[in-house]
Specification:
By secondary structure, the protein is α/β, with parallel strands linked by helices. It is built from 9 helices and 11 strands. About 35% of the residues lie in helices and about 25% in strands.
Amino acid sequence: MKIKKILITQPKPDTAKSPYFDLAEKSNVQVDFRPFIQVEGVSAKEFRQTRIQILDHTGVIFTSRSAIDHFFRMSSEMRVTIPDSMKYFCVSEATAFYLQKYIVYRKRKIFYGAGKFADLIDVMKKHKDEKFLLPVSQISQPEILQQLDKAGYKYTPAIIYKTVSSDLSDLQDVNYDILVFFSPSGIQSLMQNFPQFEQNSTKIACFGPATAKAVMDAGLRLDIEAPTAEAPSMTMALEQYIKKNNK
């Protein structure tokens, strides 16, 4: 069966340039976008119950834009003024640049890795004495905590936002040849929204080992996986699969 329709379980890119648009054109397939999960902020009241004090920390570790948005939202709601001396440690340069939305970038102490958390751990070595705040969602990220523990950093994980399943009831009668997932939460959302889901000929693609495990734990068949040596990106893995399948 030829691949004609693909659903990416993430928001549609907000720029005209995206490898997914290139994939659609090059492979002559329809690519749609629909986030299977959404982020909701934890209330200031809930956060106060954790007794975590933002100003007890001298550095903040950001692993995503959502973490940045909700850190500054929480600070505002709690009427906490973040001092100019606060240091910011971001997983990537793109994440670091996003800080410009909230602070005067060139006047702050900002450090970033090359995209992987292990890179950021190396960058942080020169700042061993800082006390770090790590804004996270309620979904555990054990590999990040393990790396921080192993390196001996003093840090506090702070749940300031939650990842929840989107309402996908409008997709009830919509069929796709490939469903593409990027997190275990996406798989959880699929099973919550469609408890009677039967995979049949639908192909499932996923990015990352944690998502692959979630696919198999849900009793589903994993057809396309990335990253691999042959396909370091999801679009590359999809393109290779379509090319082989649609001969």
